[in-house]
TrEMBL record:
Protein's name according to its UniProt entry: Saccharopine dehydrogenase-like NADP-dependent oxidoreductase
Entry GO terms, CC: cytoplasm
Coiled coil ranges: none
One Gene Ontology molecular-function label: saccharopine dehydrogenase activity
Origin species: Hydrotalea sandarakina
Domain Saccharopine dehydrogenase NADP binding per the UniProt entry, residue ranges: 4-119
Keyword Oxidoreductase: yes
Biological process according to GO: lysine biosynthetic process via aminoadipic acid
Alphabetized UniProt keyword annotations: Oxidoreductase
PANTHER family: ALPHA-AMINOADIPIC SEMIALDEHYDE SYNTHASE, MITOCHONDRIAL, SACCHAROPINE DEHYDROGENASE
Transmembrane annotation, as ranges: none
Alphabetical list of Pfam families matching this protein: Sacchrp_dh_C, Sacchrp_dh_NADP
Amino acid sequence: MKSILLFGAGKSATVLIEYLKKVSALNHWQVTVADANLTVAQEKVGQHDWVKAVSIQIELEAQRQQLIQQADVVISMLPPALHFLVAKDCLVLKKHLLTASYVDDNMKQIAAEIQQQGLLFLCEMGLDPGIDHMSAMKMIAEIEKIGGTITAFYSHCGGLVAPESDNNAWHYKISWNPRNVVMAGSAGAVYKENNTTVEIDYKNIFSNCTPLKSATIPGLCYYPNRDSLQYMQQYGLSNVATFKRTTIRYTDYCNGWQWLVKANLTSEALQYDTDGLSFAAFFETHFSKTNQQQLYQHITHLPEMQALLQDIGWFDTKTFINKGVCSAAVALQFILENKWAMQPNDKDMVLMIHEIEYLLSGKNMLHKAELKVIGENAMHTAMAKTVGLPLGIAASLLLKGELLLTGLHIPTHPHIYNLVLPLLEKEGVCFNTSTQSV
């Protein structure tokens, strides 16, 4: 009997588990969902003939290997730092591995061994990265097929709150890993614009937000996302004048978050004893400890920050952190999980926009594609759908013998995206496209 092992049953795994329940029943595949929190895994699995939930301490090698040994395909939805533990076991035990996370240096170092074993390790198979790669590559191939010469590439993506559930000043609620929300932008960014390489450090990321005029929703902006340049060659666009990947947020969010970054509230180095510390007291303590009392007073009295501060507990003296000794980033994360929590019937929204400028028969052309997915509720989110479905589809294709690549890959290969994108469309994940001369 063929089998799939999923490590991780967190926020982004909900729709993936539902999809695996569906395909396992149709194909009589065994699925195991392993998580440190057995209760969470059991709640998402429910009663199912082909899917079971188990508890695991992922750091324990014997537990990992026992589960991996029984699987044909392993999906890791663990925090990125833990993927390599699973990857090493998959290599030893000769199992295919799928993740939604970026390819890191550790994974690159074992690329030759993965190929030698005839295995597929498919990374960046989620939303962004993931669906962005597949959809962009398909568009690029179509433009080049008709003789177009691409001159500029922009890809914007963001997980946001749906307009009907947007009721805080930041226009944001947490629908995915909250740590990633707090640490967003911390790696800085580098991209190419008008034949110039541009580097932005973390302190300035959120002050470099640009209005997203092409979106169908008003008030949005974008900031540069990580290292765009690493994808230029993989996309076959090494010579384009502009290549820029970005993250979408609302303008109010970027303006407010810039102040939090400036104040070092996302620092992992600064430590606090948060037991008995209210949200308001934490903010005051932080600014005092870092000798930023003047900045605290300045931020507190900025008219444009009043509603934003209210919505992150700046003045909340009644709610306590109680996380023991932890970093400023961990304390802020706890606060935001409390203040920006999705309510049961809240809906999130995933928005992705590609803009490709190209020359065709002497004319300047613009091809635009927009993906907008609205979640059902706080459990079945658009984020979980768009992150999880590509992984589930890839696992299904592997077990059916239709996904034939081996080696370390991200989904930029036509064999991958030509198989996966039509199946995503059947699940309601599809783009609206337009082309015009400019």
